[in-house]
Amino acid sequence: MAKKSMVEREKKRQRLVEKYAAKRAALKEIARDESKPMEERFKAQLQLAKLPRNSSATRLHNRCQLTGRPHAYYRKLKISRIALRDLGSQGQIPGMVKSSW
Question: What angle, rounded to 10 degrees, do the helices at 4-32 and 38-50 form?
Fold first, then answer.
């Protein structure tokens, strides 16, 4: 199990990303638009830099929803390999059988 503080920090980042997504997208669009004057584009860049750092989607890290583990994460299932193996062994995942030989 990951530390609760790390899991909560990731949840906080997710909330910030959702909160600032529209504002961030609008400012990026202005900054990229070459038809706008240079001063306006530069102002948009400055406003973008003033937004919270954790509101950027690149700051997010995938974590297992059951354990909070950051490594060996299956995106399709949103859980780690260890949690997947445990659920498979318990028979919680249909069609999945732990092999033994």
Answer: 170
Alpha-carbon distance 11 to 70, whole Å? Answer: 13
| Span 17-60, pLDDT tens digits | 999 999 999 999 999 999 999 999 999 999 999 999 999 999 99
For the beta carbon of residue 70, count every other beta carbon within 10 angstroms: 15
Outline where the chain has alpha helix (H): 4-32, 38-50, 81-90
Task: With CA atoms as reference, report the closest residue to 16 among 77, 71, 58.
Answer: 58
CA within 13 Å, CB half, 26? 6
**CA-CA distance, 12 to 60, in Å (whole number)?**
10
